[in-house]
Specification:
- The protein is an alpha/beta fold and about 525 residues long.
- It has four domains: about 160 residues, Rossmann fold (3-Layer(aba) Sandwich); about 130 residues, 3-Layer(aba) Sandwich (Rossmann fold), CATH 3.40.50; about 110 residues, Nitrogenase molybdenum iron protein domain (Rossmann fold); about 70 residues, no CATH class.
- About 45% of the residues lie in helices and about 10% in strands.
- It is built from 22 helices and 14 strands.
- A six-stranded mixed β-sheet has the order 1-12-11-10-13-14, sandwiched between helices. Strands 3-2-4-5 form a four-stranded parallel β-sheet, sandwiched between helices. It has a four-stranded parallel β-sheet with strand order 7-6-8-9, sandwiched between helices.
- Helix 1 crosses helix 8 and helix 12 runs antiparallel to helix 13.
- Its EC number is 1.18.6.1.
- InterPro entries: Nase/OxRdtase_comp1, Nase_asu, Nase_comp1_asu, Nase_comp1_CS, Nase_Fe-Fe_asu.
- Belongs to the NifD/NifK/NifE/NifN family.
C-alpha cells in the first residue's frame, strides 16, 4: 500500500493511512486511503457535520420553504449563503435564514416552547410561505427536544401549512454524507406520496442530486424539456416543496450526485418501482452519453441527438480554443463530494490538465474510490486533510490551480496558488455544454491572470532600494511597446489585454518565467 506520510502529521501516526500516492498499475485494492471515519482528535479537521449535510447541501436549495434550524445561531449562520443555490422565486431561500437561537438557559430548561413560538413568528412574518423544514442540531438533540411533536401541533393549529422535520444533528454521522442519508430517508418517509402532481407528458422524470449552483439545474431541465421530457421534481435545486412530495409519480429517477441522493432513488425503486439511471452533466462526451441514455429509456434518441448536435456545434469551437492552451496545467482536485469523480478524468481527457491530487473532506468513501479510479498515476489522494497537510501538499506538488472551497482556497492564495471555487463556482453554471466552456474559461483566466503572475514580483530587491516601487512604476511608464510587437491570437484580432502585459514583464524582468508569457486573449468578450 503506497501510503504517504506528511511531515506535519508525524506526531499523529494514525494519519499515515489517510493519504496514498497512486502508482503505476495501482487499483482500488492497493491504492485507497482510509475514509468516512470519525475525525481523529488533534488533526484540526475542517470536515463538515451531518447537520450541515442535511440542511446546507440538500434541504436549503428548496425554494419556497422557511428553513428553520433548532439550535445555536452559529449552526445556522455557518450554513447560510456559502453556496449559490439560486432559484426562480427571487432567491427567497438565499435571502433569509432562521434559527431558534438556543442559549444556555434553554439547554437547562428545554427549548420546545421557544421552537413553537419561532415557527409561528416565521409564518406570520412571511404569510405567502406555507411550507417549513426544521433541522435538529447537536444541542437540542442532546436535551431531547421533540421537534416532530411541536411540528404536528402547529400543523393542527394552522392546517394551511405543512412542516418537514429532519432529525440530523451534527453527531449523526462522521461527515456531511451521514446527513445526506438522514434527510433522504426522512423526506421519503414523511412527505413523498402526500401530494398528487399534474402529469403533462408520457415521459416523466425526477431530476435528483443537483442543487442548482448558479443555475446548473435549470440548464439540465432545459435539455430534458427540449427532448420532450417532463421534469416532475428537482431534488432539490430550484425544487418546490409540493412537487417533491409528488416524486412517486415519475417514470424514471435521473440521478446526478450519487453520493448525496442515491438513498432516496434506491428507496423509490423499492417502494414505488421507479428505476434509477445515473448520469453526468460535466464534459462534452459524458454529458452527450448521459442525455442519450435518458433518451433511450423513453425512445427519444432522435430528439436527444438533435439537441447534442446543436449544442456541440455551438460551443465546441470555443471550448477547443481554451483546451489547446490548458495542456499540461497541473491541478489539485479538492472539491469534497461528487465533483471529485465527476471531474477527475474528464478534465484530463477533454482539457488536457493533469490532476496531481484528489481529496475529500466531507465526502463518503465511495467518492474517494471513484475519484482514485479515474485520476491519473502519481496523484496524491488524501482523506480529510487538515490545513497544514494541504499546505504541505501544495508545496510538494506545485499545482497551477486548485479546485476547492473558500477556506482552503484563501490559504492557497497566500501560497500564490490560484484556486477556483468548486462548491459555488466562480462564473457558473459549469454543467451543460456552455457550462463546460465557462469552466475552461475560468481555469484559463486563473492560470494566465496578469495580476496573479505579477503578484510574485519582489520589488524590494530592486537595485534602487530607496523607492523600489516608484522606480518600478517609472520603468513601466518608460517602456514603449508598439502594436507590431504584440503577436495576436489566431482566432481574434489584437485587443491589448494579456499580450501587452506579457511584453511589459519581458522587457522589465527578462528572466521572469511563468505561464503568462504565452497568454492570449480568449474568444469571450469578458475573458479578462
Amino acid at each position: 500500500m503506497p501510503y504517504h506520510k506528511f511531515k506535519c502529521s508525524e506526531c499523529i501516526p494514525e494519519r499515515e493511512k489517510h493519504a496514498v500516492i497512486k502508482g503505476p498499475g495501482e487499483d482500488l485494492t492497493s491504492c485507497l486511503p482510509l475514509g468516512y471515519l470519525n475525525t481523529i482528535p488533534g488533526t484540526i479537521s475542517e470536515r463538515g457535520c451531518a447537520y450541515c449535510g442535511a440542511k446546507h447541501v440538500i434541504g436549503a436549495p428548496m425554494k419556497d420553504v422557511i428553513h428553520m434550524s433548532h439550535g445555536p445561531v452559529g449552526c445556522t449562520y455557518d450554513t447560510w449563503q456559502t453556496k449559490r443555490y439560486i432559484s426562480d422565486n427571487d432567491n427567497f431561500q438565499l435571502k433569509y435564514t432562521y434559527a431558534t437561537d438556543v442559549k444556555e438557559k434553554h439547554i437547562i430548561f428545554g427549548a420546545e416552547k421557544m421552537l413553537k413560538q419561532n415557527i409561528m413568528e416565521a409564518f406570520e412574518a412571511f404569510p405567502d410561505i406555507k411550507r417549513m423544514s426544521i433541522y435538529q442540531t447537536c444541542a437540542t438533540a442532546l436535551i431531547g427536544d421533540d421537534i416532530g411533536a411541536i411540528a404536528q401541533e402547529v400543523m393542527e393549529e394552522k392546517p394551511e401549512v405543512d412542516i418537514f422535520v429532519c432529525n440530523s444533528p451534527g453527531f449523526a454521522g462522521p461527515s456531511q454524507s451521514g446527513g445526506h442519508h438522514k434527510i433522504n430517508l426522512a423526506w421519503l418517509d414523511q412527505k413523498v406520496g402526500t401530494f398528487e402532481p399534474e402529469i403533462t407528458s408520457q415521459h416523466v422524470i425526477n431530476y435528483v442530486g443537483d442543487y442548482n449552483i448558479q443555475g446548473d439545474t435549470e440548464v439540465m431541465v432545459d435539455y430534458f424539456q427540449r427532448m420532450g421530457i417532463q421534469v416532475l421534481s428537482c431534488f432539490t435545486g430550484n425544487g418546490s416543496y409540493d412537487s417533491l412530495r409528488g416524486m412517486h409519480r415519475a417514470h424514471l429517477n435521473v440521478l446526478e450526485c450519487a453520493r448525496s441522493s442515491e438513498y432516496i432513488c434506491n428507496e423509490l425503486r423499492v417502494r414505488y418501482g421507479i428505476p434509477r439511471l445515473d448520469i453526468e452533466g460535466f464534459g462534452f462526451k459524458p454529458l452527450s452519453e448521459s442525455l442519450m441514455k435518458v433518451a433511450m429509456f423513453f425512445g427519444l434518441e432522435k430528439e436527444a441527438q438533435k439537441l447534442i448536435d446543436e449544442e456541440t456545434a455551438r460551443w465546441r469551437p470555443e471550448f477547443d480554443w481554451y483546451a489547446k492552451r490548458l495542456q499540461g496545467i497541473k491541478v489539485c482536485l479538492w472539491p469534497g463530494g461528487s465533483k471529485l469523480w465527476h471531474w477527475a478524468n474528464v478534465i484530463h481527457e477533454e482539457m488536457g490538465v493533469e490532476v496531481v491530487s484528489v481529496y475529500t473532506k466531507f465526502g463518503h468513501q465511495g467518492d474517494m474510490e471513484k475519484g482514485i479510479a479515474r485520476c491519473q498515476e502519481g496523484a496524491l489522494a488524501i482523506d480529510d486533510p487538515n490545513e497544514l497537510e494541504g499546505i504541505e501538499a501544495m508545496k510538494m506538488l506545485k499545482p497551477d490551480v486548485i479546485f476547492t472551497g473558500v477556506r482552503p482556497g484563501e490559504v492557497a492564495k497566500k501560497l500564490r496558488v490560484q484556486y477556483l471555487n468548486a462548491h459555488a463556482y466562480h462564473n457558473g453554471p459549469y454543467k451543460g455544454f456552455e457550462g463546460w466552456v465557462r469552466f475552461a474559461r475560468d481555469i484559463y483566466n486563473a492560470v494566465y491572470s496578469p495580476i496573479h503572475q505579477l503578484s510574485g514580483l519582489d520589488i524590494s530587491k530592486d537595485e534602487m532600494s530607496s523607492d523600489a516601487g516608484f522606480m518600478t512604476r517609472q520603468m513601466i511608464s518608460n517602456v514603449k511597446i508598439s502594436k507590431d510587437e504584440i503577436t495576436p491570437s489566431e482566432e481574434r484580432p489584437y485587443t491589448g489585454d494579456y499580450d501587452c502585459v506579457s511584453k511589459l514583464r519581458g522587457k522589465i524582468y527578462p528572466g521572469l518565467s511563468g505561464p503568462l508569457s504565452g497568454a492570449e486573449s480568449g474568444p469571450f468578450s469578458d475573458a479578462v
